[in-house]
Design a protein that fits this description.
Elements lengths: L4 H9 L4 E5 L3 H10 L3 E4 L3 H4 L11 H14 L4 E5 L9 H15 L3 E3 L7 H9 L4 E6 L5 H4 L9 H17 L3 E5 L3 H10 L4 E4 L7 E4 L1 H4 L17 H17 L14 H10 L5
Parallel strand pairs: 1-2, 1-8, 2-3, 3-4, 4-5, 5-6, 6-7, 7-8
Helix pairs in contact: 2-4, 4-5, 5-6, 6-8, 8-9
The structure holds 3-methyl-2-oxobutanoic acid.
3-methyl-2-oxobutanoic acid (KIV) binds next to strand 6.
Length: about 280
């Protein structure tokens, strides 16, 4: 039985921290699920950490659905959130509803996330009216990086900080079941968290949010080109993988791998007949 949005909301009421992580493929999602993480985001961050783009802008619905399906297949208990990519909910309410519907119907996830505050509330409300849970995302919204002038901390001025609180309130009113706060000052995130009744999930928003989300490649040390200040590396999988790959490379080159332990047998009869028909070295 998968986690429900009501259980996520209850966690805020009960003061229980909400753990959320991204995942993009079957095997990794399976591990994250087995650890007990109740919320998994198939983030459009996959554009950078899986597909090698320099931003989330080129990510398409097709790519998101492809990865969402894999994550859904790998999980049993987590609530899976599909991240709506750039320009799939911006042009019209109809686009927003249709693409959110694709995530649920085709992708098999249980909720969608979209970026923006007051400006996207009509879309949030209409998607929720269709029975699709929506997670909001405010503060640093990477799909607007060009407009924001880069990936930097947001809401530092009094006007921008007040706007962030208003955005959170508007998203709650529109029916969002949770709100991601990305790259905002910790004390402001605490005020937002106290102001709204739905859970806030922080990423670079300090310890007082109701929950935390991280890009899995960042915390496992798998994406080392750029490690955000807010990420903590719990492992260095890059080094572990490099050493394993080097060992494999050398063993194949040296004829050490494979051995008879990694090989399949053939019956003596078949081998004898083969040897009579073909010249073999061994
Ligand atoms: O795409 C993503 O991974 C995200 C998280 C950073 C919240 O939006």
């Amino acid at each position: 039985m998968r986690t429900t949005i009501n259980q996520i909301k209850d966690m805020k009421q009960n003061g229980e921290k909400i753990v959320m992580l991204t995942a993009y493929d079957y095997s990794t999602a399976k591990l994250v699920d087995q650890v007990g993480v109740p919320l998994i985001l198939v983030g459009d961050s996959l554009g950078m950490v899986v597909l090698g783009y320099t931003s989330t802008i080129p990510v398409t619905m097709d790519a998101m659905l492809h990865h969402t399906k894999a994550v859904v297949r790998g999980t049993e208990q987590a609530l899976i959130v599909g991240d709506m990519p750039f320009m799939t909910y911006h042009a019209s309410v109809e686009d927003a509803i249709r693409n959110a519907g694709c995530f649920i119907q085709e992708g098999g996830c249980q909720a969608v996330k979209l970026e923006g505050g007051v400006t996207v509330t009509e879309k949030v409300r209409k998607i929720v009216d269709c029975g699709i849970p929506v997670m909001g995302h405010i503060g640093l919204t990477p799909q607007s990086a060009n407009q924001l002038g880069g990936l930097k901390v947001q809401a530092k001025s009094i006007d921008a900080a007040k706007q962030l609180v208003e955005d959170a309130k508007a998203l709650e009113l529109a029916g969002a079941f949770a709100i991601v706060l990305e790259a905002v000052p910790a004390r402001l995130a605490a005020i937002v968290t106290e102001t709204v009744g739905v859970p806030t999930i922080g990423i670079g928003a300090g310890p007082d949010c109701d929950g935390q989300v991280q890009v899995i490649n960042d915390i496992l040390g798998l994406h080392t080109e750029f490690v955000p200040k807010h990420a903590k590396q719990y492992a260095n999988l890059t080094d572990i993988m490099r050493s394993a790959l080097t060992k494999y490379f050398n063993e194949v080159k040296d004829g050490v791998f494979p051995t008879s332990e990694n090989s399949f047998l053939i019956s003596k009869d078949v081998l004898a007949r083969l040897k009579t028909e073909y010249a073999t070295k061994k």
